[in-house]
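re: the backbone from monday

yeah here it is again, tokenized this time
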């Protein structure tokens, strides 16, 4: 991408009204980054350079009030003010005296260099942070009319000291990989639709498991829908062995499956070594069984590394690792392995049951994948779609209104199709999958976020912090806006798909753009779609597939041009002419050509109004020049050889009077065609006879040279 230069902000006619505040009071602005209203605060009094912080904070509040910042940028500007003021507090001798009117340009340069030193070589954070700080400085001077050092204003109008990192342009997925991804996502969406239909039946016939029993799947789903299903309840009320679970519950969890690395380590006998147990086993040998050793160690008050009591199973696994060749240890290990393989994870079952009612991000992702492949919308636009974005639903499709976050504009498109995986059907599936999540939020009075199509539920290990305002909580369930970026790579990995990385959702958008470009063809203006020509050319038209297609198109054009140039005129040798005359019934046009009626000097012309040197219907401007030897309309017979030989002699004569580069550009190619292609096509005796009669054509070919035309 080309480097983006900073442009000073232009003044507008209406000044925004700022709320009154004390000089060093907390500044606060409202944003809605994910459809939920949030307050972003900045306290100038928390810095020693509070006068500088207050001035920058006022510029920040004014920018937000003037609607010049996107919601996602509001907190970034706040963070940049904090970062700069922290730097001033650390480095300036008297930070309490620093104001915008007295900030030295060297201080901002030193701040930029400190950002560079604290960042990686490939990071563009220093350039972006500096640019945002410069925007605040220029805004304070030009819009708020604050007293700002003129030298600082001029510096802020210039680009940062560091360039923004050149971003690696993501390519599209090749057609074979796209087909694999789409086929897998369709399979997942089909399964999700079956789960949605089954969920309704389970919720209708289920009751609370405390009343109807814990080994009934419908009852567990009802408890999960209430948001009160806990791991402890599952562990206490269901059989511990997977083989003893009811069949429909077993279908939700696999034996030996764990949700964390710690669980996988325990299942693989990777518990820490117990030197005390090993020492007891060495001293007492076969006199003590693993259960006896566990009793002895626990009686001494010894605990595992995790602070737990030693169990017989843990002792067995420890002995098996310490003494792998011990017959008793091997037998104990095999028994323990068999037992662990028949265990199931309550936390996994809890999440699967909650996912049946309140789908997780991983469950909704296949809908997003197919949605992006069908629409080509940006990931953030798909993520932010809501019920209010559906402006029209017809039998032929659906019309959606969406926000292009980076461009800051609202667009609207109509997507046609009524197939099972059309855009309209995918919207209906997403709405049905999150229906219960949305209904629960509405019942809680959380209407500001309930309209989203993609609301994701999760069961965190730790409760979300109250400061995380974009999360809605009920019971053990958290509901939050979707992200999908990190989930996509995990989805690819979990399904075992062999696709080239990086696995980024934005590549699906490019894949759709490329498919559209290939289908439409034409110039960039026709296939730019919802982008400017520059963005389409620099960002979307430079993918691997289009590069290959462009190379093929260019190659075909070059081959066609080469074939046209190399084809040249049609040569009618004496033998061919004699054979044609013997047929007795010649086409009138062929007879006219052979008789010289279509001669234009050096050759005959099949159609002087279908010239490659002019528009169709226009008389050929090169009919009396050497350009005929590059034209497929030209026909050379024995009658034209004297003029051609004379023309060749004149070309050689011109070589003595013209500079070599000029002669080569004008005559080298045409001389080569005459000498190496046309004349050798005729018998030597015919050519010699033409040389003897060349003097009669000298004046005529001189005219031919003056009519030379070039393509």
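seq for it, each position gets an aa:
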């Amino acid at each position: 991408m080309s480097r983006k230069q900073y442009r000073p902000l232009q003044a507008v006619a209406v000044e925004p009204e700022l709320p009154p505040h004390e000089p060093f009071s907390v500044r606060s602005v409202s944003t809605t980054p994910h459809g939920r209203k949030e307050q972003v605060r900045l306290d100038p009094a928390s810095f020693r350079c509070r006068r500088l912080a207050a001035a920058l904070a006022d510029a920040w509040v004014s920018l937000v009030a003037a609607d010049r910042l996107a919601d996602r940028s509001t907190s970034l500007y706040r963070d940049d003010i904090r970062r700069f003021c922290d730097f001033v507090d650390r480095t300036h001798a008297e930070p309490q005296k620093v104001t915008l009117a007295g900030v030295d340009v060297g201080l901002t340069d030193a701040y930029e260099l400190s950002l560079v030193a604290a960042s990686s070589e490939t990071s563009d954070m220093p350039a972006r942070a500096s640019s945002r700080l410069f925007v605040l400085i220029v805004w304070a001077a030009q819009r708020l009319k604050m007293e700002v050092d003129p030298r600082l204003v001029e510096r802020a109008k210039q680009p940062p000291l560091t360039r923004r990192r050149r971003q690696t342009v993501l390519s599209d997925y090749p057609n074979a990989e796209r087909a694999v991804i789409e086929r897998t996502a369709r399979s997942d969406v089909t399964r999700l639709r079956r789960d949605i239909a089954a969920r309704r039946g389970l919720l209708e016939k289920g009751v609370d498991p405390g009343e109807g029993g814990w080994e009934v799947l419908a009852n567990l789903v009802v408890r999960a829908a209430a948001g009160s299903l806990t791991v402890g309840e599952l562990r206490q009320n269901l059989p511990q062995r997977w083989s003893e679970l009811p069949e429909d519950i077993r279908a939700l969890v696999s034996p030996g499956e764990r949700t964390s690395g710690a669980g996988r380590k325990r299942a693989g006998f990777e518990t820490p070594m117990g030197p005390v147990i090993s020492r007891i086993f060495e001293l007492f040998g076969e006199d003590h069984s693993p259960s006896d050793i566990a009793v002895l160690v626990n009686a001494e008050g010894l605990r595992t590394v995790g602070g737990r009591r030693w169990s017989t199973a843990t002792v067995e696994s420890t002995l098996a690792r310490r003494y792998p060749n011990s017959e008793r240890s091997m037998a104990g290990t095999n028994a323990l392995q068999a037992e662990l393989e028949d265990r199931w994870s309550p936390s996994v079952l809890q999440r699967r049951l909650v996912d049946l009612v309140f789908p997780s991000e991983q469950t909704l992702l296949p809908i997003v994948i197919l949605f992006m492949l069908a629409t080509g919308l940006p990931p953030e636009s798909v993520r932010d779609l809501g019920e209010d974005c559906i402006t029209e639903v017809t039998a032929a499709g659906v019309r959606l209104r969406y926000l292009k976050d980076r461009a800051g504009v609202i667009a609207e498109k109509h997507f046609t199709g009524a197939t099972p995986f059309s855009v309209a059907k995918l919207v209906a599936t997403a709405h049905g999958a999150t229906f219960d999540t949305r209904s629960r939020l509405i019942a809680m009075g959380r209407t500001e976020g309930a309209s989203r199509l993609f609301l994701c539920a999760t069961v965190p290990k730790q409760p979300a912090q109250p400061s995380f305002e974009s999360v809605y909580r009920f019971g053990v369930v958290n509901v939050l806006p979707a992200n999908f970026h990190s989930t996509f790579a995990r989805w690819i990995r979990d399904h075992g798909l062999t696709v080239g990385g990086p696995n980024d959702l934005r590549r699906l958008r490019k894949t759709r753009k490329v498919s559209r470009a290939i289908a439409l063809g034409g110039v960039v203006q026709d296939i730019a779609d919802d982008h400017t020509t520059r963005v389409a050319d620099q960002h979307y038209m430079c993918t691997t597939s289009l590069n290959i297609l462009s190379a093929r198109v260019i190659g075909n054009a070059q081959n066609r041009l080469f074939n046209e140039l190399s084809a040249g005129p049609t040569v009618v040798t004496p033998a061919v002419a004699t054979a044609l005359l013997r047929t007795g019934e010649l086409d009138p046009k062929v007879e006219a050509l052979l008789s010289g009626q279509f001669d234009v000097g050096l050759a005959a012309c099949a159609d002087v109004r279908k010239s490659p040197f002019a528009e169709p219907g226009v008389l050929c401007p090169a009919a009396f020049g050497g350009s005929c030897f590059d034209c497929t309309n030209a026909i050379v017979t024995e009658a034209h050889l004297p003029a051609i030989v004379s023309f060749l002699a004149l070309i050689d004569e011109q070589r003595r009077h013209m500079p070599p580069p000029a002669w080569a550009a004008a005559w080298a190619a045409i001389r080569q065609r005459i000498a190496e292609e046309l004349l050798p096509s005729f018998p030597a005796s015919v050519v010699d006879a033409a040389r003897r009669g060349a003097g009669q054509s000298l004046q005529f070919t001189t005219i031919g040279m003056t009519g030379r035309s070039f393509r």
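The chain has four domains: 27-156, 169-205+361-557, 213-349, 568-706. Confidence is low (pLDDT under 50) at residues 1-20, 259-273, 463-470, 697-711.
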